[in-house]
Specification:
Layout: H1 2-10, H2 15-27, H3 32-39, H4 43-55, E1 59-63, E2 67-71, H5 75-99, E3 106-111, H6 113-124, E4 130-135, H7 141-156, E5 161-165, H8 170-181, E6 185-189, E7 198-203, E8 206-211, E9 216-221, H9 223-239
Parallel strand pairs: 4-5, 5-6
Antiparallel strand pairs: 1-2, 3-9, 4-7, 7-8, 8-9
Helix pairs in contact: 1-2, 1-7, 2-3, 2-4, 6-7
């Protein structure tokens, strides 16, 4: 549950919402009093958290005869995430249209786990093959969970990916091979002498450069630059 709590916090859920929702996942159908005893959260705060969770479509209630609350199917959480992803993409597109013309190179800089997750999922809206080089193992649970959700959604949308990794860690290799088995994924080992803290994503006219040392991100949107990066990727792919 700790991984889920961290992830919900990254999504912007309030502390009480996280505690109440994860408690319901473990307890099932429960009264407010039972939830309060389980979480230590005051009942007035629980009512507020439940109201928010119901509006998000994650919790439902019944009266028979005492009112009880229960978590909806976990798939509802994925649907909630997808809806936020769509909202973010629409807002992002509106902002881009207002701040710059379509003919100029767009460069953005940001930082952090949430920013990385948003950049990653935004690639899926392009509905184009994704090329990645410099994939490495990561110990950050929130990042790993974001990657897993990203790959699940990518494969659901049948978006192909080629990626080159440079890691000798058994856990990283196992994880990458598991992704490969799901389909729509090609994988090659990158020579360890080219190991770095940078991972590069190329998709359509967009490039995302991730620096793992401080989770800083550079996004470039330019068709010509992306095409050159794609050619560079092809060279590396052919010699890997």
């Amino acid at each position: 549950m700790e991984k889920l709590k961290i992830f919900l916090g990254e999504l912007g859920f309030g502390k009480n919402e996280v505690e109440v929702y994860t408690a319901l996942l473990g307890m099932g159908e429960s009264t407010v009093l039972q939830i309060s005893k389980k979480t230590g959260v005051h009942r007035s705060n629980i009512y507020e958290a439940l109201d928010t969770l119901i509006k998000k479509g994650l919790v439902s209630s019944i009266e028979n005869p005492i009112k009880k609350y229960f978590p909806r199917n976990p798939k509802c959480l994925l649907e909630f995430i997808k809806s936020k992803e769509i909202e973010f993409s629409q807002i992002s597109q509106e902002l881009e249209n207002k701040t710059s013309s379509s003919c100029e190179t767009k460069i953005g800089r940001t930082k952090g786990k949430l920013a990385f997750r948003d950049s990653l999922f935004n690639l899926l809206t392009l509905s184009s093959p994704i090329y990645v080089f410099g994939v490495k193992s990561n110990s950050n649970e929130a990042i790993n969970l974001a990657f897993d959700l990203f790959h699940r959604e990518r494969i659901r949308r049948k978006i192909k990916m080629r990626m080159m990794y440079h890691s000798n860690e058994k856990s990283a290799i196992k994880s990458i091979q598991e992704i490969k088995k799901r389909g729509y994924t090609e994988v090659k080992k990158f020579p360890m002498e080219y190991n770095s803290e940078i991972t590069t994503f190329i998709c359509s006219s967009k490039i995302i450069i991730m620096n793992w040392t401080d989770l800083s991100i550079v996004e470039i949107e330019d068709k010509e630059i992306a095409t050159d990066y794609s050619k560079y990727f092809d060279v590396l792919w052919n010699v890997a």
